[in-house]
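TICKET: design request
STATUS: open
ATTACHED STRUCTURE:
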């Protein structure tokens, strides 16, 4: 299946906003994000069910699916940006009209729980999606300059993206030397695991696998990487990028534990592929947008990552 790239976003285009997972506790964050987009010269359409609550979900499955389908079917919408992550995206996968998405490829942005949708879209439609900033998380107050610049450049420019620029004072840390090329896929480790054994998980063969997570103790990360290992997934990939693993430490000081680095070394150090740590993406302020699906080069010998093509047309 040919890779599907969405059209680039242009000034004056309309951005659609949906909540496929959870709603923020403070709904004013959504309005603040809308105001930000409008100040930049974009029109905004907020899904009719955005702002609802159904326990920890942003409305019922049917309401969240309705907004998702409406945004993809609306010819005026050029980009769809999620409100936040949380939980709920995996519940939608068996209810989505993937033919609708395939016929209407659009910029689709989010991360964390949104990983489930991004992997399913790639598997079913080969659509390039964007692990990038979300309305109520990154756009509601002072926007990080690095996050902002990388994001808008990625979704508006049809030029090759080239080498990843890092935030000031940061550097990529090679864990296993080597070089590799392949399509980049991945996202939140917990969400990737939630799709194993389903028809929504992409083929891992020759892919560059990106991983991030939040608030998972080292033994939980250990369990998840072990599951990828015994499922045979890590034998298929050509390289690994590790992003931010925010607060992934043992909270109980009395409890014996391995460090996160020791866990990574156990499962990734044995692979004969390049592995790079400290990629600037995940639950953090300075966040590099990742276009899942495009060709990517990992050079752990020289410590850089390069996107080899544009993400939009």
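STATUS: resolved
RESOLUTION: sequence designed for all positions
ATTACHED SEQUENCE:
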């Amino acid at each position: 299946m040919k890779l599907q790239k969405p059209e680039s976003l242009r000034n004056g285009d309309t951005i659609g906003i949906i909540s496929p997972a959870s709603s923020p506790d403070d709904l004013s964050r959504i309005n603040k994000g809308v105001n930000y987009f409008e100040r930049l010269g974009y029109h905004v359409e907020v899904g009719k069910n955005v702002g609802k609550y159904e326990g920890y979900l942003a409305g019922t499955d049917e309401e969240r699916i309705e907004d998702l389908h409406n945004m993809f079917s609306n010819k005026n919408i050029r980009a769809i940006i999620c409100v936040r992550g949380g939980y709920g995206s995996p519940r939608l996968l068996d209810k989505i009209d993937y033919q609708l998405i395939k016929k209407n490829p659009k910029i689709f942005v989010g991360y964390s729980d949104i990983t489930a949708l991004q992997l399913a879209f790639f598997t079913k439609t080969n659509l390039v999606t964007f692990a990038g900033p979300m309305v109520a998380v990154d756009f509601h107050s002072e926007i990080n300059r690095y996050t902002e610049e990388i994001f808008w450049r990625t979704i508006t420019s049809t030029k090759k993206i080239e080498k990843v620029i890092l935030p000031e004072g940061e550097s990529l840390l090679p864990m296993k030397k080597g070089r590799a090329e392949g399509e980049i896929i991945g996202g939140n480790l917990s969400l990737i695991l939630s799709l194993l054994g389903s028809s929504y998980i992409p083929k891992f063969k020759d892919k560059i696998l990106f991983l991030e997570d939040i608030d998972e103790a080292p033994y939980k990360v250990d369990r998840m990487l072990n599951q990828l290992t015994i499922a045979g997934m890590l034998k298929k990939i050509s390289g690994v990028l590790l992003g931010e693993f925010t607060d992934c430490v043992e909270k109980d000081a009395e409890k014996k534990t391995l460090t996160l680095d020791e866990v990574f070394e156990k499962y990734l150090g044995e692979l004969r592929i390049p592995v790079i740590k400290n990629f600037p993406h995940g639950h953090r302020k300075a966040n590099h947008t990742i276009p899942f699906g495009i060709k990517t080069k990992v050079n752990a010998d020289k410590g850089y990552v390069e996107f080899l093509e544009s993400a939009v047309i």
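CLOSING REMARK: The chain has two domains: 14-156, 162-307. The first strand starts at residue 14 and ends at 18.
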